[in-house]
Amino acid sequence: MRFEREPRAEGYNWTARKEALFLRREAREAEKIARDYPLFVGQFQPRPTLPVDDERKRRERMLLESEQRWRDLQARFWRQARHAYFACVPEMRAAIIVEWNQWSGPARPLYFTYIVEKHNGVGEERTRRLRESEAAMLARIREREKSQATLLMA
């Protein structure tokens, strides 16, 4: 199965500019409170900031957790796409693989799912249901418009 590897994050890039912005955060929040709520300046206090090292570690941890969630999501999509692929009959799987190998776009799970659903009919069924629900919604809107127009004319 062809897919593109995503490089892992190399860590949070903590620059002098980010540090300066972080150190000035309390002052910026105080200025914002004074600008937006001038009558309540003494009642609102800016959030206290963490020490620089703690903030750096927090951002690093958040970056790694976020990347792991993204990788888990992509893996889940691949598993779902492969499950749909292997549920197809062998002739259909052969046609899917031929098209996938000719695919010049990114080798991501979304695109593989598109190709699988194009062959197994799920995409057509989804499109049909979407068009039906859209038509029903438009009919409800037109009915409301007619009823409102009759109320305005009366």
Comma- or semicolon-separated keywords:
mainly alpha, 154 residues, single chain
Describe it for me?
By secondary structure, this protein is mostly helical. 4% of the residues are buried. It contains six helices and no strands. The chain has helices spanning 16-23, 25-36, 52-86, 90-102, 109-120, 122-153. The chain folds into two domains: 10-49, no CATH class; 51-153, no CATH class. 73% of the residues lie in helices and 0% in strands. The mean pLDDT is 91. It is flat. α3 (52-86) packs parallel to α5 and α4 packs across α5 (109-120).
Fraction of residues in helices?
Answer: over 70%
Q: How far apart are the first and last residues' alpha carbons, in Å?
A: 66 Å
Percentage of residues in strands: under 5%
- SSE pattern: HHHHHH
Rg to the nearest angstrom?
Answer: 27 Å
Main sheet attributes: strand count, strand direction, barrel closure: none
Low-confidence stretches: none
**Overall residue-averaged pLDDT value:** 91
Structural class: mainly alpha
**What's the shape?**
flat
Count of all domains: 2
**Number of helical runs?**
6
Strands, helices and their partners?
Elements: H1 16-23, H2 25-36, H3 52-86, H4 90-102, H5 109-120, H6 122-153
Helix pairs in contact: 3-5, 4-5
In short:
It contains six helices and no strands.
